[in-house]
TrEMBL record:
<dbReference type="InterPro" id="IPR002931">
    <property type="entry name" value="Transglutaminase-like"/>
</dbReference>
<feature type="domain" description="Transglutaminase-like">
    <location>
        <begin position="64"/>
        <end position="159"/>
    </location>
</feature>
<dbReference type="Pfam" id="PF01841">
    <property type="entry name" value="Transglut_core"/>
</dbReference>
<dbReference type="InterPro" id="IPR038765">
    <property type="entry name" value="Papain-like_cys_pep_sf"/>
</dbReference>
<protein>
    <recommendedName>
        <fullName>Transglutaminase-like domain-containing protein</fullName>
    </recommendedName>
</protein>
Length: 269
């Protein structure tokens, strides 16, 4: 138990947060990220079989034709069957099993498993993180997704853990992440699950001028699954991620709207 507490404290310590972003981050632009998506490194053939089993349950009665409708149905099923809890840091199929069994799952866990469901349903998807610049440890961070709608010809942000889509005040077309973060707060959100009782985190990350998104790029799901299963809790999970970084196969954080170096102006107190 003591080792688990120490490991958790290290994972949450600002120094580790600082180090991870310093190693993995790079500045980018909106245009340069246009074709960057999770599907590029992750094909249907590498998605674990358990995702296909659950996918049959998700679309047991009905499968919409439009990409946004399919994505919402996936997200809705996940929200109805996953109550959430602690962060997992498990291989993707093990994380999905744990989440369905009620053993935890935070926003980043939800975003990562959502990626795999999108892949097997022929939906282009990408995962975003949201952080505060300069970094402030009381906010932590948030994870969300975008899917590419062929019908709309654009990316659409879908926050699975919060069960929301975004719109302009006078328009019912769902917005992209860039539209949300460049609209100066003149957008609204709507839940596709149930009424939101506490919108504090939504306000912190989508209406806060200090919040900025970064794309989680080049994430190879099968590679991380392999090493996370091989590790089997022998070492803290950040050792696994650091090893993959050392062999040159790590994911990257790409900042299109703000210089990532400005996030490091904080105190370790």
């Amino acid at each position: 138990m003591t080792l688990k507490k120490i490991t958790w404290a290290l994972r949450r310590h600002p120094l580790l947060y600082y180090t991870r972003f310093w190693l993995l981050s790079k500045n980018s632009t909106i245009n340069r990220l246009d074709k960057d998506c999770y599907n590029r490194e992750n094909s249907k053939t590498v998605v674990p079989e358990f995702f296909y089993e659950i996918n049959k349950k998700i679309f047991e009665h009905y499968k919409p034709e439009k990409d946004v409708d399919k994505a919402v149905l996936i997200a809705l099923w996940l929200r109805k069957h996953i109550k959430g809890g602690r962060g997992l840091s498990l291989a993707s199929d093990e994380a999905l099993k744990a989440m369905i069994n009620g053993d935890g799952g935070v926003c980043s866990d939800m975003s990562q498993i959502f990626n795999n469901f999108c892949v097997i349903n022929d939906i282009k998807v990408r995962e975003w993180g949201i952080t505060i610049v300069p970094f402030n440890k009381k906010y932590g961070g948030h994870a969300t997704n975008e899917i590419f709608s062929k019908e709309l010809g654009k990316w659409v942000i879908i926050d699975v853990s919060k069960s929301i889509l975004f719109y302009y005040e006078d328009n019912n077309e769902p917005l992209s992440l860039f539209q949300v973060f460049t609209s100066n707060g003149s957008h609204r959100y709507s839940s596709f699950y149930k009424e939101i009782e506490d919108n504090t985190q939504i306000l912190n990350y989508y209406y806060n001028k200090r919040a900025t998104p970064f794309l989680i790029s080049s994430y190879r799901n099968s590679l991380y699954d392999k090493y996370l299963k091989k590790n089997n809790s022998k070492y803290p999970v950040f050792f696994v991620h650091f090893y993959i970084y050392l062999i040159g196969k790590s994911y990257k954080y790409k900042f299109p709207l703000r210089d990532y170096r400005k996030m490091f102006r904080f105190s370790f107190s």
